[in-house]
Pyrroline-5-carboxylate reductase (Microbacterium memoriense), 278 residues
Amino acid sequence: MANDTLPSIAILGAGSMGGAILQGLVRSGQASQVTVTNRTSAKAAALSELTGVTSLSLEADPTANVTAAASADVILVGVKPVLVPELLREIAPVLRPGTVLVSLAAGVTIDTFEEIVGEGIAVLRSMPNTPAVVGKAVTGVSAGPSASSAEAALVRRLFETCGAVIELPEAQIDALSTISGSGPAYVFLLIEDLTEAARGKGFSDADARLMAEQTFIGAAALLAATGEDPAELRRRVTSPKGTTERAIAVLQGAHLDGVFAEATDAALARAKEMAAGA
């Protein structure tokens, strides 16, 4: 096996997030063997077309999760949080010592995983985001006490096939989810609203969408290319007594900083509710 090739991987529940990670893995060319599961045969069939992917459905085989878990060195758990304990109890008997178990589920603690699967299984908790599909994710990773530094490094390398990785204590994972986890939705909402503003000024739907979307894409590319602080780049666009300065004054007058703080606080409160089973 080549040094840059990852060990065998299973993604149990390759829905929105698990599917995004799968796409990133396939794009990277570093996954030697990936087995994924879905509830329906239709979803499984769509993923089976990806190179190097074995796709199983619970509809066709109720034991698909067990089959996938038994064959993998690294297992990503991507089912809905409420389904995680049941899934872990189902696969626990087939997990081999040295298996690395990675949670993609919001609100499910490392303790919950370790209590069910027992000793000898390294557990890590992750919080990716959907730009993994295009290799531009931000993924937070927290290693449990059962995970060695080598196992943590392996999981980091896995997620680096899909973008950037931040290693952090588990106590911060929910806070990270309110920024990068939910963050793409905030950006898409801003694009929606800017597009609507363009429509209101008489532009066609196509031109309004092009202006709004390409402005965000171009600004992000400029930020990445220059490495400058966003505030500095904003200042360069904002000429004294110009049109942009007037627009920025309106946005700042709406206290966007407070709005984002309130929004991410609300997301964090919900994450804590989910962790408590609410």
Observations:
- Residues 183-274 form a domain with the ProC C-terminal domain-like fold fold (CATH 1.10.3730.10).
- Strands lie at 9-12, 34-38, 53-57, 74-77, 100-103, 122-127, 137-143, 163-167.
- DSSP finds twelve helices and eight strands in the chain.
